[in-house]
Amino acid sequence: MRRSVGAHLELELYDTADLVLSLAVAAGADLVSESLLVTSGGATLTPTEVAGPHGTRLHRLTGGAGVVSVDYRAEVVGRATAPPVEEIDLLQYRRPSRYCESDTLLPTATAEFAGLSGKNLLDAVSSWVGDRLTYVPGASLPTDGAVATLLARRGVCRDYAHLVIALLRALDVPSRLVSVYAPGLSPMDFHAVAEAYIDGAWYVVDATTLAPRGSLLRIATGQDASGTAFLSQYWSGVDLWELEVTAVVDELSGDDLTELVQLG
Q1: Which of 42, 90, 125, 187 has an alpha carbon within 20 to 30 A of 155's alpha carbon?
Q2: Is the bond preceding residue 187 a cis peptide, omega within 30 degrees?
Q3: Is 144 strand, coil or helix?
C-alpha cells in the first residue's frame, strides 16, 4: 500500500503569533518522502518539531503579522508500526474529558449496551451512533461535546468520534481520538475517528463509515479534539483563509465492517 497525503493552509495573522501545526504523519510510518514548507512575506520560516504522545509530531513556529502559507507533503509505503501500549494510556483514556463526558452519558451507555463487551460492544456503539446522528457539515460548534452532539442528533466526524468515545469510556473501555488522513473521504478534509482498546490492541471505530479504515493514516492522538487540532495559535488572532487536504492510496479497498481494523 502506498499513500500520498498533504495539506495546504493560508493563514492571516493579526500580530506576532505562536503557531502549532499538527499536519505531519505520526512517527512509525515508513516515509518515502516528506516536506514541510512555511513562508511569510517571501521568507521561509523554520518550525521546530515537538514530539507528542503516541508518535504525534507537532511543528511550532513564530510568525509576524501578515499572510503565512503552509504546505505539507508526505508519501508512505506499507503499514505503520503501532505505538506501544502503556499502562498509563489504559487509565487516562477511561476518564471523562472536555469533549467526551462519559460520566454524564453513563446511564445512556448502560441502558443501551448492557451485557456487551469486546468486538460486539464496538460494533453496537458504532452502529448506534451512526443510526442516531446525521452528518451535517457546519452543524456543530467547536465547543460542542458528546452530550451536545447527542441532543442535536447531528454533527461532523469529530462529533461522531466524541460520542463513540464517551459511550465506550462510560463502560470502562479505554478510548481516544485520532486525527487521520483518509483516502476515499468525500469531500476531502482532515478526518477524526475513535480508537478503542480491546483484546490487547487498539482498533478503529468510525461511526461515519465515510472512508475505508484500512487506508487511514495517523496524524495525532489524544483525549479528544483538544489534543489533535491541526492548528493552534497563541498571542494573536488568526484567520484561516484556505485549507486543502489531499489523501490518495494506490489501491482503495472496501471496508468490511464486520472486521476489527487497526490504524496503519
Answers
A1: 90
A2: yes
A3: coil
What is the tens place of the pLDDT at every residue in 158-195? Answer: 999 999 999 999 999 999 999 999 999 999 999 999 99
In CATH, the number for domain 87-228 is 3.10.620.30
Q: Which three cell numbers stand for residue 89?
A: 494510556
pLDDT tens-digit series, residues 46-100: 999 999 999 999 999 999 999 999 999 999 999 888 888 999 999 999 999 999 9
Cell numbers of 46, please?
A: 523554520
Q: Could you give the CA distance from residue 264 to residue 259 in angstroms, rounded to a whole number?
A: 15
Is 241 strand, coil or helix? strand
The reply to whether the predicted model has a pTM over 0.85 is yes
Q: Are 165 and 146 in contact (CB under 8 A)?
A: yes
Same-fold call for 2-79+231-248 versus 87-228 = no
Q: Starting at the edge strand that comes first in sequence, how are the strands of the sheet with 201-205 ordered?
A: 201-205, 191-198, 175-181, 217-222
CATH number for the region 2-79+231-248 comes to 2.60.40.2250
Tell me the domain boundaries of the chain.
Answer: 2-79+231-248, 87-228
